[in-house]
Design brief:
Shape: globular
Radius of gyration: 21 Å
Number of strands: 10
Number of helices: 5
Largest sheet: 6 strands, mixed
Helix content: 25-40%
Order of helices and strands: HEEEHEEHHEEEEEH
Structural class: alpha+beta
Length: 238
């Protein structure tokens, strides 16, 4: 009986002290712990994510060329800002509301102190459905940081094809000739595309804002990017 009691105590101690650590290691296995969030290379480098930390100013980066967002604002006007580029459809109000909710609750409420994160919502219109701005009137993200860009799909692709939608990003976002709603791409202050990896060591390229799992990965990678800029600022001031 005493031996059984000792065995039971051992099992309980194992479950309390050891199992949580093993579970954490299992869940985080394969997940990159970046010091710098990888940058997408240019065409000559096959648009691969560059993992080398010493990458400041290296010409192999893909830089997004300028294009208009509104009548008074262009993409390069947001240099020195982090941009989240994502896509929605004017004909699907509920999905648009869900996208807004996910960004508010899973990104903005956690990173709301950072005034240099901008949300660029490319809204796809057609001959019947036009964008209704009232959908996002209750958005907690400041209005100047949430920018809606309503466009016909052909006009949108003219701006972003082979510019933001490059390499495997393009094939992930364009499905059966249509833009996949909710896909989000991280663009840094310099106009480069950034990406991380999921827990299975698979490169993300874009993050689906309708998926709670992927939007949390997006938030974690944004934290890495923000920390990178904070370190650079601290180094510059020292």
């Amino acid at each position: 009986m005493k031996q059984t009691t000792n065995y039971t105590k051992g099992v309980v101690l194992f479950l309390i002290l050891v199992l949580p650590s093993l579970l954490y290691l299992y869940l985080t296995f394969g997940k990159h712990n970046f010091v710098y969030l990888p940058i997408i290379a240019n065409q000559s480098q096959d648009y691969r994510p560059l993992l080398n930390e010493n990458r400041q100013g290296i010409p192999e980066h893909h830089f997004i060329t300028d294009f208009p967002l509104t009548d008074s604002l262009s993409f390069r006007d947001l240099d020195n800002k982090i941009k989240l580029v994502f896509f929605s459809n004017a004909d699907n109000i509920l999905t648009n509301q869900l996208i807004g909710y996910m960004f508010q609750t899973e990104v903005w409420t956690h990173l709301g102190n950072y005034e240099d994160i901008y949300f660029l919502n490319f809204v796809i219109e057609d001959s019947v459905n036009t964008f209704d701005a009232s959908i996002f009137e209750g958005n907690s993200v400041p209005k100047d940081q949430w920018i809606n860009i309503p466009l016909q799909q052909d006009s949108l692709l003219t701006l972003v094809d082979n510019n933001i939608l490059i390499g495997n990003i393009q094939s992930k976002v364009i499905v059966d000739g249509a833009v996949k709603v909710g896909e989000t791409i991280i663009c840094d202050r310099e106009g480069r595309i950034r990406t991380g990896f999921n827990n299975s060591d698979k490169i993300m390229l874009s993050y689906n804002s309708l998926s709670k799992f992927e939007i949390k990965l997006l938030r974690d990678d944004l934290k890495v990017l923000l920390a990178e800029y904070q370190r650079e600022l601290k180094t510059k001031n020292d």
